[in-house]
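Researcher: We're teaching a course module on how sequence relates to structure. For the next exercise, students receive a sequence and then see the predicted structure as tokens, so they can try to spot secondary structure elements on their own. Here is the exercise chain.
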Amino acid sequence: MPELPEVEALKDFLTENLVGHEVVRVLPVAISVLKTYNPPVTALEGHEVTEVHRYGKFLDLVTADGPHLVTHLARAGWLHWKDELPSGMPRPGKGPLALRVALETGAGFDLTEAGTQKRLAVYVVGDPQEVPGVARLGPDPLADDFDEARFAALLKDERRQLKGALRDQSLIAGVGNAYSDEILHAAKMSPFKLAASLTPGETATLYEALRTTLTEAVERSRGVAAGRLKAEKKSGLRVHGRAGEPCPVCGDTIREVSFSDSSLQYCPTCQTGGKPLADRRLSRLLK
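Model: And here is the predicted structure for the students to work with:
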């Protein structure tokens, strides 16, 4: 799933390639992708793109005197830029293509989604705050006003484990499964540690890991073409998705805990005092 760093890079890429150009065609190929119907997607046509914003994991294309096109790529969605779009009409139900946006230059982009779980979402709205997911977002962890005191206040009464708290978009916007693993590894903290149990010193350590991990990921992604961002993300991850490999810090074997629809990865030596975490799903399978 694209998270804050990749969506920030997409925002920069689209700012460079979209702003100042007119939208001439919007083609929804998979009707399931459209989460709003008034105004229709055709209301974007004939309007110039003036800005591109990011809200957590949401992308917002702003048009002059027209609506906003807000997109959430979900787990398996992606944006593919094309300097020259195909001339023919795409066929619904054939392949992963969900929506196509064409510019007056002949360039544009496709939104695609792999797999059978169709969660890619497109909204055409007068204000991005009309999108429920945007309206309930917590603060952006890279915002100038997101200081350590604000972070500590968010976690003060949070009774959930750190892994779940970091992924909660209404608490902190933009962090998902991969970067929560990376942040906790950098902070040398167990993903199962309760957020409210952190000491002031631990809170400071986690805050620094949060900001540093995301800032470094944004810098790695900056200037990378949209089509290469997935590979760039994977290459920069130290523990997420690397179960069975040696930890780049201590050399211990990276372990995994599986859940019904996701998993987390961690280093026992760096994060849990050398003790493997219980993987209840695996334990049930072995009985």
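Model: If you want an answer key for the exercise: The two ends are 32 Å apart (CA to CA). Residues 161 and 194 are 4 Å apart (CA to CA).
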